[in-house]
Specification:
heterodimer; A: Ferritin; B: alpha+beta; Ubiquitin-like (UB roll); 3-stranded antiparallel β-sheet; 3 strands; 1,2-phenylacetyl-CoA epoxidase, subunit C (chain A); Ferritin-like (chain A); Ferritin-like_SF (chain A); PaaC (chain A)
Chain lengths: ~250, ~100
């Protein structure tokens, strides 16, 4: 598969799976205002998914559209990072997953605004405002929960530790990433990693959280279609109607 | 609204009143209220609940407890004397087209 199509699908899949996860919390937020915010973030990410898919489908030229890409691919065709398919858990788990992702996503999207591919740069430009807000919000909540009560601190630290092994995959560097960086389309992974570590360290310090060791084992495979056991269930729920009534107009 | 209740029970977040000036609006308008633990989160929440993050808007939040309202029973004394004095209202002049928003 063309490297650029592959790269675009990775961007789209990350946003789609996280959007789906957040949508499941609709009506279940800890407060009305948090509920609205979660849905807002989910909608932002879904909008971004559509832009990435649209471009990927165009480049691919195989007659697939955004719906086809979202609803007619199985788990091994999805290229999202494993972090995003992890369960919502408690609110600390949800927000820590969000914070790890948002930090990477923000620096990535900021980098992509300088992409040599004009269309990618334009999508990144549009997404940057949303992503900036996401990062501000999830960082703020991590500080509030980490530096809150003893219980909220313990839960936030537990979430930080549990999700840590999935936080490094985004910086993985395979042939697709390399082709994108060499073409000036994507920012270099090590630069993103440096920015990511600096921001996470800053927020964790403010949140009185201990940052897990940087050389810890990092699980990967999502980008290559090797997923945790969670993704199959997410897709079964998400794709049910299109699977039951393929190509129905809606 | 359970304004009284929410300020009395410590576990409930306090109530905030939200005022928003829209992109082309001239003044902040009261748009509603929400609960938030502090001012910063009240602003964030107001963005999500009331503006859907439109650009160019300004948000004010103020604790509901800090607002003093006039009493409905004082309505007569406060407002009615104005009604009988038409000369207080500049309604006898045609306004020039160029003068907007007066």
């Amino acid at each position: 598969m063309d490297a650029k199509v592959n790269y675009l699908l990775r961007l789209g899949d990350n946003a789609l799976i996280l959007s789906q996860q957040l949508s499941r919390l609709c009506g279940k937020g800890p407060a009305l205002e948090e509920d609205m915010a979660l849905s807002n973030v989910a909608l932002d990410l879904l909008g971004q998914t559509r832009l990435w898919y649209e471009y990927a489908a165009e480049l691919e030229g195989a007659g697939r559209d955004e719906d086809r890409l979202a609803y007619h691919r199985d788990a091994h065709d999805f290229k999202n990072c494993l972090l995003l398919e992890q369960p919502n858990g408690n609110y600390a788990d949800t927000m820590m997953r969000q914070f790890y992702f948002d930090t990477w996503h923000y620096f990535l999207i900021a980098g992509l605004t300088h992409s040599s591919d004009e269309r990618i740069a334009a999508i990144a430009e549009k997404s940057l405002k949303e992503v900036t807000y996401h990062l501000r919000r999830s960082g703020d909540l991590v500080v509030r929960m980490g530096d809150g009560t003893d219980i909220s601190h313990a839960k936030t630290q537990a979430a930080a530790d549990a999700l840590w092994m999935y936080s490094g995959e985004v910086f993985g560097y395979d042939a697709v990433d390399q082709a994108m960086v060499e073409a000036g389309i994507a920012p270099p992974a090590d630069q993103l990693r440096t920015q990511w570590l600096a921001h996470v360290a800053e927020i964790f310090a403010e949140a009185t959280l201990v940052m897990p060791p940087q050389d810890a084992w990092m699980q990967s495979g999502g980008k290559q279609g090797r997923h945790t056991e969670h993704l199959g269930f997410i897709l079964a729920e998400m794709q049910f109607l299109q699977r039951a009534y393929p190509n129905a107009q809606w | 609204m359970s304004t009284q209740l929410s300020t009395q029970t410590s576990k409930e977040w306090p109530l905030w009143e939200v005022f928003i000036r829209s992109q082309h609006g001239l003044a902040h308008k009261h748009v509603g209220s929400l609960h938030a633990p502090d001012a910063e989160m009240a602003v964030n929440n107001a963005r999500d609940v009331y503006t859907r993050r439109n650009e160019g808007v300004s948000i004010w939040v103020v604790r509901a407890a800090d607002i003093v309202a006039s009493s409905p029973s004082d309505k007569g004394a406060l407002f009615e004397p104005a009604n009988s004095k038409v000369y207080r209202h500049p309604t006898f002049f045609p306004m020039p087209e160029e003068v907007k928003n007066l």
